[in-house]
Specification:
The structure holds 2 protein chains of 2 kinds. Chain A is an all-alpha fold. Chain A contains 26 helices and no strands. Chain B contains 6 helices and 9 strands. In chain B, a hairpin with a 2-residue loop joins strand 4 and strand 5. In chain B, helix 5 runs parallel beside helix 6. In chain B, about 40% of the residues are buried. Classes of the chains: A mainly alpha, B alpha/beta. Chains A and B meet through helix 9, helix 10 and helix 14 of A and helix 2, strand 6 and helix 3 of B.
Chain lengths: ~550, ~210
C-alpha cells in the first residue's frame, strides 16, 4: 500500500518529463548549434546584418509599445461599463484568426491594388495602382500594423483574465471609487491606481508580444520588408539553405535575436525600477486631470479592421479578373475554392496533426494538473512559457535537430512532436484556472460514496469540467493549425498544411488561392471553437 | 452641513429607503442602522454618485448649500471609508497620502502635511513602508488619514469598524470620531452594531417604513 502511495506521489514525474524533455532537448540543440565562432564571424561580416537587425528591433519595439498602449486605452475605456462583456467576447473571436490569415487579409487590403487604394482612387482619379510600397515597405510599417492588430487583442484578453480573477474586479472597482471620492476622474484612477498594479502581472504576455514582434517570420514573409528583410526572416532563409555553413549562420542569427529579446526584457525591467520614483512623483502630485470627453473608440477601430480583413479574404477568394481601379471584379470564380477543397492531403495533414497535438497537449495538461498541487504551477512556468518566449527560429532549429536524432525528421511523427511542444503549454494555460478552481469537496463527496478515483474522474470531475476541457482542446488545436516554422522545418517541406500552403501561395502572388487557404486556415480552429462551445452547453433538462 | 431631503431608494419590487430626511452638522456623526439588505450601503453609494444598476433614487442632497446630486463623484467632495482599508498596494504609505492631498502647494509642503498627519496618528516613521507591511489597525488609520487629507466636505463610513477585533475596534472608533470632529465635517456612519454609535450621537434606523431624524 505504501509503495503504491509512493508511486502515486511520484506520478507527476511522468507528465513533467514528457512535457519538459523534448522542449529542453530542443532548446539545448538550438542553442548549441548556434554557438559556433565561425558562424558568428560570418554573421557579423554579413552586410545585411545591421539593417536587418535594426528592422527587427524597430518593428518589435514599435509593435509592442503601440499594442500595449492600445490595450491600455481599450481596457480603461470599457472595463466596468456594459460594453465590457461584448468586448471580451469579440476579443476571443479576434484571437481565433490565425496570424498568417490576418497577414494575408491585411496585405490584400493594403497593397497598391488593394481595397484601400481603390477607395482613394475614387477621389484622386488614379487609373493604375500607386507606385508606393504599402506592403513590404522598407520601414516595416505594414508589418507593425499587422502585429499591432494581432497582439492588442491578446493583451486585452490577458488583462481581462487578470481582472476576472476571484475578487480582482471588485477590488479594482472599489479602489477606483475611493480615487473618485478624492476627486480623480475614472481615467486618472486607472492610470495611477489600476495599471501600475496590473502591468507587472502582464509581464509574461508583454514579454511574449515583444519576443514575437522581434522574431516573427510568418507575418514578415507576407508583409515585412524584403531588401533586406528582418533578421528573423534572414535567419529563417539561412536555416533553410542547402549549405551547412549558412545553416549555422542562421542558428547564430536566431541566438542573436534571442539575446536581443532577453536584453530588451532586462532593459524594460531596469527602466521600470529606475523610473519608479519619477512615475510615483507624477502619480502623487495631487493634480486631478479631467478625462477626455470624447475618447477615441479604439476597440471599434479594431473590430472594423478585423471585419474588413475577413471580408477582403472572402471577396478575393471568389474574385476572378479584377482590374484597377474597378470596385467590382469583371467576373467571379469559384476555382480557388474548388482547388482548395480538392487538396485532400493538405486538409487531412492539418486536421490530423491538430487533433493529435491537441490530444497530446490535453493529456499532458490533465496529467500535470491531476498529479501536482497548484503551488507547483509556478515551478512549471519557465517551461510553460518557453515556447511562447523563445524565438521560433531558435526553437525550431533545436526541434529539427531533435527530430534528426530520433529519426523522425521529415515525418508526420516529427511534426506532431514539434506541434505538441507548442500546443501543450497553451492547453495547460487555458485549462489550469478552471481545473485548479474545481471544488475539492465534490471530489471528496464522490470518493466518500465509495467511487474509486478513475470513476470519480470519468463520471464526476471531467463531465463537470467539460466546458474548459473542450475550450483548452480547441486552443491546442488552433495552435497546431497555425504552425508554420515547425511544419516546414521539421517536416523538411514534405508535408503541406493549410498554413504552409497559404503562405507559399501568398509569396507566389496567387491571391484568390492564398485568400481561400487563409480562410480555411481560420475556419478550422473556428469550427473547433464552435464544437467546444456546443460540448460546453448544459444538457437538456428533458 | 449635509442635508438629505425626502430621499427614497427603491428596487423594482420594494422600497429600501422611504422619504428619509436628515441634517448632519459639521463635526457630527449621524449613524444609519438597519438589517442586512435594508439599503444602508446603497444609500452611501448613491450619496457618492454610484447607485448600483437596478436601483432608483429620488430626493435632494445638499452639502454646505450645494446640490451635489447633479455632480459626478469626483466633484462631490464626499469622502468614503469602506470595511476594507483599500490602501493602494503599489504605493508606500506616504505616497498613498500624497495621492489624496490636492495639488497647489509645493511638494515639500505636501510631504510635510502628510508626515504631520502620520505623527498625529501615532504612525511617525511609517511613511516609507509599503501597506502590506502594516498591521490591520495601522492600515485602517492610514486609510482614514488618506480620506481626510483629500479635504472632503463630508465623510461616509460604510461599516469601517466591522473587520477589526474588539480591542482595536474601540480605539479605532475613537480615532475616527476625533478626526471628524477636528476636521469639522459632517459624517454618515452605516453599521449594524449599536456599539459603533458615537456617544450621544443620533441614529436613523432603516425599516420598511419611512424614518426621519
Amino acid at each position: 500500500m505504501s509503495a503504491l502511495r509512493r508511486a502515486r506521489r511520484q506520478a507527476w514525474l511522468i507528465p513533467a518529463t514528457i512535457f519538459c524533455a523534448p522542449l529542453a532537448a530542443a532548446l539545448w540543440f538550438g542553442i548549441s548549434d548556434s554557438i559556433d565562432l565561425t558562424a558568428w564571424r560570418q554573421l557579423l561580416a554579413d552586410t545585411q546584418l545591421p539593417a536587418a537587425l535594426r528592422l527587427s528591433l524597430q518593428t518589435g519595439i514599435a509593435s509592442t509599445l503601440i499594442a500595449a498602449l492600445l490595450a491600455v486605452a481599450i481596457v480603461t475605456q470599457a472595463h466596468g461599463s456594459p460594453r465590457w462583456h461584448r468586448l471580451t467576447a469579440s476579443v476571443g473571436g479576434m484571437l481565433a484568426l490565425p496570424h498568417v490569415a490576418l497577414a494575408i487579409g491585411l496585405a490584400l487590403l493594403l497593397m497598391p491594388s488593394g481595397a484601400i487604394a481603390r477607395a482613394i482612387a475614387m477621389f484622386t482619379g488614379w487609373m493604375s495602382p500607386p507606385d508606393i510600397a504599402t506592403i513590404q515597405d522598407p520601414n516595416g510599417i505594414a508589418l507593425v500594423l499587422a502585429l499591432v492588430l494581432k497582439e492588442t487583442p491578446f493583451l486585452v484578453w490577458n488583462a481581462a483574465a487578470q481582472l476576472q480573477r476571484e475578487g480582482q474586479g471588485d477590488e479594482i472597482e472599489k479602489q477606483l471609487r475611493i480615487a473618485a471620492t478624492m476627486g480623480y476622474s475614472r481615467r486618472s484612477g486607472w492610470m495611477r491606481i489600476v495599471w501600475p498594479q496590473l502591468l507587472p502581472r502582464l509581464a509574461l504576455p508583454l514579454l511574449a508580444v515583444w519576443a514575437y514582434g522581434v522574431t516573427v517570420v510568418d507575418m514578415a514573409l507576407v508583409l515585412g520588408p524584403t531588401h533586406p528583410p528582418t533578421l528573423a526572416v534572414l535567419a529563417w532563409r539561412w536555416l533553410l539553405d542547402a549549405d551547412e555553413a549558412m545553416n549555422r549562420q542562421g542558428a547564430a542569427a536566431a541566438l542573436m535575436l534571442s539575446l536581443c529579446v532577453a536584453i530588451g526584457a532586462c532593459l524594460a525591467v531596469a527602466v521600470r525600477k529606475l523610473g519608479r520614483p519619477a512615475l510615483m512623483s507624477r502619480w502623487t502630485r495631487g493634480d486631478r486631470p479631467a478625462s477626455p470627453s470624447h475618447p477615441w473608440p479604439w476597440h471599434a477601430f479594431m473590430r472594423a479592421a478585423y471585419l474588413a480583413i475577413v471580408a477582403m479574404l472572402l471577396f478575393i477568394s471568389v474574385a476572378g479578373v479584377w482590374t484597377f481601379p474597378a470596385w467590382w471584379p469583371a467576373r467571379w470564380s469559384a476555382q480557388a475554392w474548388l482547388t482548395a477543397l480538392a487538396s485532400a492531403g493538405t486538409w487531412s495533414t492539418t486536421l490530423g496533426l491538430a487533433l493529435a497535438s491537441a490530444t497530446t497537449g490535453l493529456v499532458l495538461a490533465v496529467a500535470w494538473l491531476e498529479t501536482t498541487p497548484a503551488s507547483w504551477d509556478a515551478r512549471a512556468a519557465p517551461f510553460v512559457f518557453a515556447p511562447m518566449l523563445v524565438p521560433g527560429v531558435l526553437l525550431v532549429g533545436g526541434l529539427y535537430e531533435l527530430a534528426l536524432r530520433t529519426g523522425s525528421d521529415g515525418s508526420l511523427a516529427g511534426i506532431w512532436l514539434a506541434h505538441s511542444v507548442y500546443a501543450a503549454p497553451y492547453v495547460l494555460v487555458a485549462l489550469a484556472p478552471a481545473y485548479r478552481g474545481f471544488d475539492p469537496r465534490i471530489e471528496l463527496t464522490a470518493r466518500a460514496l465509495g467511487k474509486p478515483r478513475p470513476v470519480m474522474l470519468w463520471r464526476v470531475k471531467w463531465p463537470m469540467l467539460r466546458a474548459p476541457i473542450a475550450a483548452a482542446f480547441a486552443v491546442g488545436f488552433a495552435v497546431s493549425v497555425a504552425q508554420y516554422l515547425s511544419t516546414q522545418f521539421v517536416g523538411a517541406g514534405r508535408h503541406a498544411s493549410l498554413t504552409t500552403e497559404a503562405l507559399t501561395l501568398a509569396s507566389g502572388g496567387q491571391r484568390s488561392l492564398s485568400a481561400t487557404f487563409a480562410l480555411l486556415q481560420a475556419a478550422l480552429p473556428a469550427l473547433m471553437f464552435l464544437a467546444a462551445h456546443a460540448v460546453a452547453r448544459p444538457r437538456s433538462k428533458a | 452641513m449635509l442635508e438629505l431631503d425626502a430621499v427614497t431608494i427603491a428596487m423594482p419590487e420594494r422600497v429600501l429607503v422611504r422619504s428619509l430626511t436628515a441634517q448632519v452638522a459639521a463635526g457630527e456623526v449621524l449613524t444609519v442602522m438597519g438589517d442586512s439588505g435594508s439599503g444602508k450601503s446603497t444609500l452611501l453609494g448613491w450619496l457618492c454618485g454610484d447607485l448600483p444598476a437596478g436601483f432608483l433614487a429620488s430626493g435632494s442632497v445638499r452639502l454646505n448649500g450645494r446640490d451635489v446630486l447633479a455632480l459626478p463623484t469626483a466633484q462631490r467632495r464626499i469622502g468614503m471609508l469602506f470595511q476594507d482599508d483599500l490602501l493602494f498596494p503599489h504605493m508606500r504609505v506616504l505616497e498613498n497620502l500624497l495621492f489624496a492631498i490636492p495639488s497647489g502647494e509645493p511638494r515639500a509642503q505636501r510631504i510635510a502635511s502628510a508626515e504631520q498627519a502620520l505623527r498625529n496618528a501615532g504612525l511617525d516613521g511609517h511613511g516609507p513602508r509599503m501597506p502590506a507591511s502594516l498591521s490591520g489597525g495601522q492600515r485602517a488609520r492610514v486609510s482614514v488619514l488618506r480620506a481626510l487629507l483629500a479635504r472632503p466636505e463630508a465623510l461616509l463610513l460604510d461599516e469601517p469598524f466591522s473587520k477589526l477585533d474588539a480591542a482595536l475596534r474601540q480605539r479605532f472608533r475613537a480615532f475616527v470620531f476625533e478626526r471628524i470632529r477636528e476636521q469639522g465635517i459632517p459624517a454618515l456612519l452605516v453599521t449594524h452594531d449599536p456599539q459603533d454609535v458615537p456617544h450621544a450621537g443620533r441614529v436613523v434606523e432603516l425599516k420598511e417604513e419611512a424614518d426621519s431624524a
